[in-house]
Amino acid sequence: MTNKTVQGIHGYGSKHWVGDGFPVRNIFPSNGVNNEVSPFLMLDYLGPAYFPPSETPHGVGEHPHRGFETVTIVYEGVLAHRDSTGSSGILNPGDVQWMTAASGIVHEEMHEGEFARRGGTMHGVQLWVNLPKVHKMSKPGYQSILNQDIPVLDVSDGVSARVIAGILPGATGPAKTFTPMNVFDVKMKAGSRAEFELPEGHNGGVVLLHGGASVDGNSLKGEAMIAVLSRKGTGISLSAETDSSLLILTGEPINEPVAQYGPFVMNTQDELRQAVEDYRSGKMGHLS
Question: Exposed site from 61, 65, 160, 252, fewest CB < 10 Å?
């Protein structure tokens, strides 16, 4: 097995609030990492951030998306979601929400009411996944993936991986995707090592959420960092200096133009203008 090589190591590029409930560090694309991780568009690392008790839940209110998918992984805290398709759900620690905006969806993401009233720590990530042109105007959809439905593999002594999407020898992730990809949620104990088999030709990255780890000898220490991987090669070697939390992301690249305006990701400027018009005219729906 020839390992993929590390093409670059990047820290987060911006730090900001999403609504009043999500202080995030953007791991890409604000740091210049872009096409080399296609089909992934964006990754925000939320918190960890403590919120004192509040009778009014924090979060981000009604807003639209078109042309891609959002993937939310909750580590701590409780989120409440509802959208214009009529879907709603509660995300507890370990749960994953995989929302396909496609032709257009309007939704809100808030701290769940009881969690807001008692206060606590919010901690998670949100990943944006591009859709190929042929699927951008598909029907919107929503996958609620509960923690207990995500297979966990003991990769080696002290290393575990939750397989959210794709295939790791021994497990297949529950998420249904439009293009081939892998999303692995990895925990490593200090001093542990592991080898991961990954697809030839996939773009990819190893994201350090927190801790200290090395990717084929390339050190990542701290929080909110990414090691961008080469498309060539079929594996990586990881080692942990301290207890570490990581995401391994790989995907078949979507070799199409990307046009983005805020929450809309299409292929052309004309399509973006149409998306804005459709949202303003109510064609993506609204929350009742």
Answer: 61
